[in-house]
Amino acid sequence: MVVVVAAMACGPSNAEIKTARTASYHATPANLLVIAQEVTSETYQVASRTDDELVTVPRFYSATGELESTGAGNVVQVRAGSVRVVFHIKIVPSGADWSAIAVTPDTLQVVEGSPQPRHLAPDDPYLPAFVLGRADALALAIYERAKPYATK
Questions:
Q1: Do residues 23 and 150 make contact, with C-beta atoms less than 8 angstroms apart?
Q2: CA distances in angstroms from 5 to 10, 48, 93, 121, 140, listed in the order given
Q3: Which of 46, 49, 90, 116 is least enclosed by beta carbons within 10 angstroms?
């Protein structure tokens, strides 16, 4: 019993994350976007929405993943290694009546001594692991809500 509880407390498995990333849904893109927006809005603010994509408001995190605090006038104090993360949640048609949902981070990192931040692609080796962890958590939460429409 203790082993089962401890295993459940560790978070989602790699299999669950893979399922969330690769699921196809038998639902209209508009319905999937509504589900994705509801789920996303529980954790992030949505900055924009089109017919097939949501974009979150940028958030700044420390190099270790703590949310950077905002001060007076909504100013964020960033340091070398801080990252700005925006998530793109896109509905991707995958067949005549099927769609998939892709959650992709758009990340900029503050570089000490440089006036320009560095763009970090999702497969960049310098991308902090917590960024993909947050993307996976969002994809899994959307999957859990949209599961009734998922293929078996």
A1: yes
A2: 9, 39, 38, 36, 20
A3: 116
Q: What is the pLDDT of residue 61?
A: 95
Separation CA 84–CA 105 (nearest Å): 10
Structure tokens at 71: 């001060």
- Contact by Cβ (8 Å): 39, 31: no
Enumerate residues 6+ apart whose C-beta is below 8 A from 114. none
Q: Taking every pair of C-alpha atoms in the chain, what is the biggest distance, in angstroms?
A: 54
Lowest mean pLDDT among 43-47, 54-58, 74-78, 116-120: 74-78
Q: What is the pLDDT of residues 71-112, one digit of tens each?
A: 666 677 788 899 999 999 999 988 777 899 999 999 999 999
Pairing of strands 59-61, 83-93: antiparallel
Average pLDDT, rounded, for the chain: 89
In total, the chain counts a number of residues equal to 152
Q: Which domains are present in the chain? A: 2-149 (3.30.310.80)
